[in-house]
Amino acid sequence: MGKRMVETVIFVIAALAALAGAVTVVLARNPIYSAVGLLGTLFSVAILYVVQLAHLVAAVQVIVYAGAVMTLFLFVIMLIGVDKEEKRVEPLPRQRLWVGILAGAVILFAAGVALFGEFVWVPAAATAIDQEATNGTIQAVAEPLFTDWVLAFEATALLLTIGAAGAVVLAQFKRKRA
Amino acid sequence: MTWPEFWIVVLRVILTFGLLLVATLINVWAERKILADMQNRIGPKRAGPWGILQTVADGLKLFFKEAVTPRKVELGMYLLAPFLAVVPAFLIFMMVPWGKPFTIAGNEVTLQGADLNIGLLFILAMSSLAVYSVVLAGWASGSKYPLLGGVRATAQAISYEAAMGLAMVAVVMFTATQGDGGTLSLAEIVERQAGTWGDIIPALEPVLQFIPRWNVFPQIVAFIIFFIAIVAETNRAPFDLVEAEQEIVGFHTEYSGMRFAMFFLAEYVNIFSMCAIAASLFLGGWNGPTFEGAVPAIVSGILPTVWFLAKTYFLIFLFFWIRATLPRLRYDQLMQLGWKRLIPGALAWLVLSAFVISFRQFGAPWSQ
Questions:
Q1: pTM to 2 decimals?
Q2: ipTM summary value
Q3: How far apart are CA B60 and CA B258, in angstroms?
């Protein structure tokens, strides 16, 4: 009871919301609803991170993906049009059937592992009661990032900057030619 | 968690929520009254003494007004958008410490919704979620002008959020030198601004010991950038192109009654939260003289909250003052100010303060 119960309740609510969002992404006819569904899923997953006491990951998830989905939004509005709906023609025949079979197999496998395997659910809140350990997630992430892995970190930062600058340059170049 | 701890958490969340609501009621009235004074008008005066109940009357009117739903709206998103505006606005303020922590019957009570380790990141996350309400409201209205208004508002919010975040980074970097390691918790940042600058330069101690240890003095450029960015983030004049009542039509044109009131509420809640965050980051939050021992304990316990509110309302007054003074920017001027002035300025300031901080910590690079 207590912490474990609270964690279970939050997990079930957030997981159901994440699933509902994911189903919306696939089923919605209107791309805007798909984008909102994606936002809902990402936000619910952030809640799951909080339940696992990974506050930093949760915050980064919301900040980064909220921005990303916003970009999707604007793409939908500008490129597809405001009130265009998806056409009902399927380019790949029987794709739904195959995806359904595959998803069913994965779910059966996961259920089998959960029921018959040596699967123990360890709630994070029940084990890591130590407040000092849970309150320092940023420090815990920052320390290895800026000491042991600083070279990889800086190289990644440089790579991303080059990627962003390169995209801008390519876009400009194309426009000048046309 | 024991029962007293549980009730303390419940109580402080309710207190924080209540403070925010009352402050918002007063804000709306104060804005109309102060603007009226600056424009040689009287302003609201009928409802209650000095018209202080005007906001309550307006709120009741909006509550009972018919909420018209235009025929071409996307109903789900149209109804969702006002809630997406209000919820992040309230959650942001939960990070702000609005009084000195005290102990009652062996339990420590912090006057703050929640003291998260990721405080500032949480604020950024919530303000990036708040943008969705604008773009969804604009899109779901099923009308051209709200859609354009929504897209315009999104561009503005995203542009100025970058400058706001960069200004915050400079403060976080500076705060890391003021205590044991870096922190993103707003409560910790406020606590590190206690005291005065007396010990920073020994020769100037007689003067500096009267200057409080607020971040605004070493980080003045960051404060100016942050303040301009929050004026733009909350869509206030001179950056109020988002709603611009007189000539441009904004994202909430198709909303009426209580749904419009929720956007309105969110805007004023955001003004208060953002000013409270600015006061906590730069003006020392609840720090100030409490005269402990000279006055009854209850007075010195309440004084920090008074200081916090005084600083916040000073910044809010600046908002009103700017609104009464400056004309609205054109859209290209808005974007130029954001991308060509504030963001490069914030970046330059960030590099400069990084240099100064590392020089003070490690000395010149050529020294052994």
A1: 0.88
A2: 0.81
A3: 9
